[in-house]
Amino acid sequence: GEDVEQSLFLSVREGDSSVINCTYTDSSSTYLYWYKQEPGAGLQLLTYIFSNMDMKQDQRLTVLLNKKDKHLSLRIADTQTGDSAIYFCAESRGKGGYQKVTFGTGTKLQVIP
Amino acid sequence: ETGVTQSPTHLIKTRGQQVTLRCSSQSGHNTVSWYQQALGQGPQFIFQYYREEENGRGNFPPRFSGLQFPNYSSELNVNALELDDSALYLCASSLAGTSGSMDTQYFGPGTRLTVL
Lengths: 113, 116
Known about the structure:
heterodimer, A: six-stranded mixed beta sheet, five-stranded antiparallel beta sheet, 61% strand, globular, B: 116 residues, mainly beta, four-stranded antiparallel beta sheet, 11 strands
């Protein structure tokens, strides 16, 4: 089955680290993504990780993947007020040129100044 | 910015009408996917077009249809609009390799459709 779950809300103080968690059910996922969506805007790709990797770091962002537990996390270091947004975890499966991406319901990150 | 554009930005229709939404993919991309994002939810996959053919579909009725043109731009058509069709419609483009490998999808800003 296909299901991606995230907690709905996270509140952190400016300067602290944020950790957003996600679980997925499809073990055949090839890519796992984190997208950011600000109010009234489309989806901004933040980072992604191949399913055969454990960790990926990109400036303030660290993605950890536990494939055994089907658990993905996004850590944002030194969280800023501009990081306030909804963060979507997504997993993709594909073969023969077809790729289907399944999104979670999103985690709303509130950064308190 | 991703280079994926969508038009119009906003649209208001009444129940029973038909609507066409448009998407221009990022330069070099040959695959377009469409998603529906209802308020407060994550995007839901509608379908994907590759080489002008639909090659994958989510759980949406046939009144949701699409086209992909030789320049890889795409249209989403929705017939017999219902109130629940009110949502943000997102398109995403990507590059499918000849071996069937798929690159990351990049999203456009979306079209917000309101059905009254």
